[in-house]
Amino acid sequence: xxxxxxxxxxxxxxxxxxxxxxxxxxxxxxxxxxxxxxxxxxxxxxxxxxxxxxxxxxxxxxxxxxxxxxxxxxxxxxxxxxxxxxxxxxxxxxxxxxxxxxxxxxxxxxxxxxxxxxxxxxxxxxxxxxxxxxxxxxxxxxxxxxxxxxxxxxxxxxxxxxxxxxxxxxxxxxxxxxxxxxxxxxxxxxxxxxxxxxxxxxxxxxxxxxxxxxxxxxxxxxxxxxxxxxxxxxxxxxxxxxxxxxxxxxxxxxxxxxxxxxxxxxxxxxxxxxxxxxxxxxxxxxxxxxxxxxxxxxxxxxxxxxxxxxxxxxxxxxxxxxxxxxxxxxxxxxxxxxxxxxxxxxxxxxxxxxxxxxxxxxxxxxxxxxxxxxxxxxxxxxxxxxxxxxxxxxxxxxxxxxxxxxxxxxxxxxxxxxxxxxxxxxxxxxxxxxxxxxxxxxxxxxxxxxxxxxxxxxxxxxxxxxxxxxxxxxxxxxxxxxxxxxxxxxxxxxxxxxxxxxxxxxxxxxxxxxxxxxxxxxxxxxxxxxxxxxxxxxxxxxxxxxxxxxxxxxxxxxxxxxxxxxxxxxxxxxxxxxxxxxxxxxxxxxxxxxxxxxxxxxxxxxxxxxxxxxxxxxxxxxxxxxxxxxxxxxxxxxxxxxxxxxxxxxxxxxxxxxxxxxxxxxxxxxxxxxxxxxxxxxxxxxxxxxxxxxxxxxxxxxxxxxxxxxxxxxxxxxxxxxxxxxxxxxxxxxxxxxxxxxxxxxxxxxxxxxxxxxxxxxxxxxxxxxxxxxxxxxxxxxxxxxxxxxxxxxxxxxx
Length: 799
What we know:
Layout: E1 7-11, E2 13-24, E3 37-42, E4 50-52, E5 63-73, E6 79-87, E7 92-101, E8 110-118, E9 123-132, E10 139-143, E11 147-150, E12 152-163, E13 175-178, E14 186-188, E15 198-208, E16 216-219, E17 228-237, E18 244-245, H1 251-271, E19 286-290, H2 294-311, E20 319-323, H3 325-333, H4 339-342, H5 345-356, H6 365-380, H7 387-399, E21 422-429, E22 441-445, E23 449-452, E24 457-460, E25 467-469, E26 472-475, H8 482-489, H9 497-509, H10 535-542, H11 548-560, H12 567-577, E27 585-588, E28 595-596, E29 627-632, H13 641-644, E30 653-658, H14 666-677, H15 687-690, E31 699-701, E32 711-716, E33 725-727, E34 730-731, H16 735-741, H17 761-776, H18 779-798
Parallel strand pairs: 19-20, 19-30, 20-21, 30-32
Antiparallel strand pairs: 1-10, 2-5, 2-9, 3-4, 3-6, 6-7, 8-9, 10-11, 11-28, 12-15, 12-17, 13-14, 13-16, 18-24, 21-22, 21-29, 22-23, 23-24, 25-26, 27-29, 31-32, 33-34
Helix pairs in contact: 2-3, 2-17, 7-8
Main location: cytoplasm
GO biological process, one term: glycerophospholipid catabolic process
Keywords: Calcium, Cytoplasm, Hydrolase, Lipid degradation, Lipid metabolism, Metal-binding
């Protein structure tokens, strides 16, 4: 945690007394009776507990005068939630809610507020706040300007034995330990019999040193009082945190950039025909961005990178960013640590074999056992499984044809010597009840780290999915396999798993790879057995409400079906429950235990959305969430511009390849709007004035008067001159050549739909050649942009 970006100091807790005095003109949901009101209080920055007043019966003007005390650090963002309820016998009806920012309270002063709940009805709540100065022991705190953490205590509790039970007792007993403000919260011993049972069992609680840490000890399932439990307790400071607080790049990425700059300098010498390059020259940062778009995007990105390779400019590129399908391309390419040296021809040939070959091996007993065992193992470790896991298995077999144990952190070998561009895979963190276009936080996956740049918090890539508290890893899980991340990064398809399996089987059985889907019965009845899903998972993750009894029946039936005859199970699960879009991936929140700093919104590196209400209600932000909800970044912006233009990276030249189905400039315009709101330099995107009729193969966007604005070369996926040329300057002459170029990508009944996962060999070859050609045909413009980027980098260095 300790970096040059982290400030360390000591902070005292002070007592905050909150008195709920009275309500006025309170009306409930039922007009025929007076409400029975009570107020609920939450202050997440001080306590994980929820407090409430007593209920005042049958009164529209209830009086409580009840005081609650919280111990707060004034350096934190303290926002109190007050919720007024009508205590109905059948359901607690919420009347109104409000949040009170306590940052303006003065020490030692009493402030009474009459908070208007409904101006029209003149409904209000009267509350008094009193902040009392305390001389409590100061606690060390650490902050990066947005997040704050305190010392983490590791408390070990040994339950020895119990005394005082009746001698004639024959029941088994267990001790339950509860520490509400710890990460673990609750633990229980095994059950023991006897009048004085002995356990000698150890439990660990990770707690916040800046809170009142209480341990509650109860005897499970008994009414006995006055019993004696012997415990041993030890508390120690946890080891140094693993989570890195700070907005700077990781050490691994910094080291890469130093090595890559030397390689890029030599490459620029060749590209720009310079005799030599002075050591004092600044090498511009060039980034390549690939959009989402399923297998179409993956295949096209291979072609685009192949074009850059044939131009001889791969070594000029520092970064490769992916979204969704482009992430699939990068993940498979980086299996070869020296891919840019070896070339992409072999990798393209392998991908062609995978996407155009038979798929029956996807639906085999071995594959089903592989899925079942992996899901069971993950659930046994306490992690949630969902459709993203299953989708990852489908991608694993589609792209590799076998089990692939590769991990993201292993790609460090591919950048250790600066030999390839640095890969960065994008996802976004969303909220379940807010549209992703209104709330999404960018998450970056690199070979070294996974993190949320918005908060300046990063963990080692090998520890993704492990559980963290206050920056400390409290429970380690194995690094997830790369195929799980493939599913996470590309989880936004409206295509259901049911339709995908139909598609794979129908194309497999068709001589030309295509078949009329309306003439056949669904072919889902194949080999998907023994996948256990809980009712709440099915409901939360798919949006389909499934009765608990039905879910249990499906799971129980799965365990009784032989792998060789799974027809009934796949039909039930996929047809009844999984017939919607692929799901959100719920992962442990590595921000857990951190809090937001007072005035964090004003920190330069924090990037809130102006129209996003969540960013202006701190208790709704990610540090207070139990889980992160990660999805396809294409649900936000279909090109990872926000990651490429972090202030610590700021590329001089961006080559963006957009393989979106429609609106080829939408992601670019969204990025421009994003940067305008966050005051980040970016060129104006005026496509209408720059295009005359049909789309061009490449567009250059720049601000000639401002060297801090990056150059953007934008490549829509369009078939223009490729229709008439096999290579730049080489016309199509034969009928076969002319037919090979005569196609459109984005038309009705196109084989390149986002929902198509298989191609014929001809379809695959056409797409790769088209993407490659569009790069090669604009080599002059690319070289010109590289020259401009070089000159701008030098001017910026001199400036």
